[in-house]
Specification:
Elements: H1 2-38, H2 45-56, E1 60-62, E2 68-72, E3 77-90, E4 93-109, E5 112-113, E6 118-125, E7 130-132, E8 135-137, E9 139-144, E10 157-161, E11 183-191, E12 209-212, E13 225-226, H3 249-254, E14 257-258, H4 268-322
């Protein structure tokens, strides 16, 4: 009985670990794709957006009109900030959302251009709907380090969705119409790579851009402020206009949606190499745990039989010699 319990636990552990390894292998595949196609071309809007769609399995983004745009192409703090309406699927559910993307970043500090500055993009919402570290808050942020490997948490974009843990205002009344938080402030900060004693990046005390629904009175580098910041929810909530059949080709044309993704099949090699090595390791562990003992026993029994037969032959020869 205990043997079967142990074997069952082993099988469950292998299944769980296999899922984890598969995800790691798929992430390695995305990393190779990002390094090969996106990293050196992230200042090209079309390439970056297509890469984000492909890597993060976004259903579509609306190319035009943009939900928001701010361009700084002069001075010590240059960047392009754009917001796009996007749609994603999670199981059978479809969600509208926003994607804030930053690129073409050139930041000069002490008359020297910073090589690959680390960017922190933060938002403040009207309600505490963002789940951050298992607590609901009205503010959240992403940190983008262009040197680090690709991951879903290290991209030059911040995502918000009309969904639980994002912008949906929780309501105990299941029959009530859903309500969503609105964006009140968006802030951009940078770090030159310096870290504190805990190994965390030290960001400049003064942001280099602030967009807000009300006048922002604190200091901002080069006075990059937008006090008329206002995101119209109707500008990104597109799914209600798609009809009963969901997203169709007519909708794609009518709303200027982009759905095309890159083909990742050319990067399957790294994924299958990892899975092949993992499979060999599992086979070896399984063999030594469950089969090696019996194989050794059979080999020992076979050797004993061979020795016995050999001894019998020797004794027979000895008898014949005596005759």
């Amino acid at each position: 009985m205990m043997k079967w319990i142990g074997r069952s636990i082993y099988v469950l552990a292998i299944v769980f670990i296999s899922v984890v390894v598969f995800r790691l292998a798929y992430t390695a595949k995305l990393q190779e794709y990002y390094d090969g196609e996106i990293r050196e071309n992230r200042d090209d809007d079309e390439t970056l957006l297509k890469g984000l769609m492909t890597s993060l399995t976004i259903d579509y983004y609306r190319e035009t009109p943009k939900v928001y745009e701010y361009i700084s192409d002069e001075g010590d703090y240059q960047f392009n900030l754009s917001a796009y309406a996007i749609g994603i699927s999670y199981g059978e559910e479809k969600y509208d959302g926003l994607m804030f993307v930053i690129n073409n970043i050139k930041i000069t500090e002490n008359d020297e251009l910073i090589d690959n500055p680390i960017i922190r993009m933060s938002v403040t919402l009207s309600h505490q709907t963002l789940l951050v570290n298992e607590e609901y808050q009205n503010n959240g942020s992403i940190i983008y380090d262009p040197i680090l490997k690709f991951s879903i948490y290290n991209v030059p974009a911040l995502f918000l969705f009309d969904a639980v843990n994002y912008m949906l205002i929780q309501n105990d009344d299941e029959n009530a119409e859903p309500e969503y938080a609105t964006i009140e402030t968006l802030t951009l900060e940078y770090s030159n790579g310096e870290t504190n004693d805990n190994g965390s990046y030290v960001f400049d005390e003064i942001p280099f851009f602030v967009a807000s629904t009300t006048e922002y009175r604190d200091a901002v580098h080069d006075d990059h402020k937008d006090s008329n910041f206002a995101i119209d929810p109707e500008s990104y909530r597109l799914s209600d206009d798609f009809g009963d059949d969901g997203l169709t080709e007519d909708d794609i044309i009518q709303f200027n949606l982009v759905t095309e993704k890159d083909d990742l099949s050319g990067y399957n090699g790294v994924m299958w190499r990892i899975m092949f090595i993992y499979g060999l390791v599992v086979l070896m562990i399984t063999y030594f745990l469950f089969f090696h003992k019996y194989v050794r026993q059979r080999m020992r029994m076979k050797q004993e039989k061979e020795v016995k037969v050999s001894n019998q032959a020797i004794f027979k020869d000895d008898v014949e010699d005596e005759k």
